[in-house]
Specification:
The protein has two helices and ten strands; from the N terminus they run E-E-E-E-E-E-H-E-H-E-E-E. The protein is mainly beta and about 140 residues long.
C-alpha cells in the first residue's frame, strides 16, 4: 500500500496559526473523460493531526444498500482514466468551526484538473471568513 496517494490536501487554520485537524473532506471524480458513462468515484477522509490527508478511502453513503466500495484512488487514476480528468475537493468547514453560524463558508469546494501520471497537493488556507487555495508541491 502506498504511503501517500497521488492527490493529497492540507488545511491550515490561519485564524489559529495551526493545522486544521479532523476536517471531513470528500474527493470526487467529476469527469474521467468527456465521453465517459462510468459512475462517479467518490473518496473521503479526515485530516490528521498535521491537517493533512495522505490516503483516501472509498466513500459509502448512509443510503447505500450495504455494499462497500472496494476501489482505490490509485486504481481509478491508473486503470479507469486515460488523459486529463476533473476532480472536486469538498471541505466540511461548518463542522470544523462548530456550526454554519460560525463561518461564512460552511463548505469549501475546489475543482481542479488532473493530468495523467501527475501528483497533486491542494493546500487550503482557512479562516472563518476567508479561504485561499493553490497547487502545492
Amino acid at each position: 500500500m502506498a504511503t501517500k496517494d497521488r492527490i493529497t490536501c492540507h488545511i491550515l487554520d490561519t485564524s489559529k496559526g495551526q493545522p486544521a485537524r479532523s476536517v471531513r473532506v470528500k474527493l470526487e471524480l467529476l469527469s474521467p473523460s468527456p465521453s465517459s458513462t462510468q459512475p462517479s468515484k467518490v473518496f473521503e477522509s479526515l485530516t490528521d493531526e498535521d491537517g493533512r490527508i495522505k490516503i483516501w478511502l472509498p466513500y459509502s453513503s448512509a443510503l447505500s444498500s450495504g455494499e462497500v466500495p472496494v476501489y482505490t484512488l490509485e486504481h481509478v487514476l491508473v486503470n479507469d482514466i486515460k488523459g486529463p480528468s476533473r476532480w472536486m475537493l469538498r471541505f466540511d468547514t461548518a463542522a470544523y468551526f462548530g456550526g454554519e453560524d460560525k463561518t461564512f463558508f460552511p463548505e469549501v469546494t475546489v475543482v481542479f484538473r488532473v493530468e495523467e501520471g501527475q501528483t497533486y497537493h491542494v493546500p487550503l488556507l482557512l479562516a472563518p471568513y476567508s479561504y485561499s487555495t493553490y497547487r502545492g508541491s
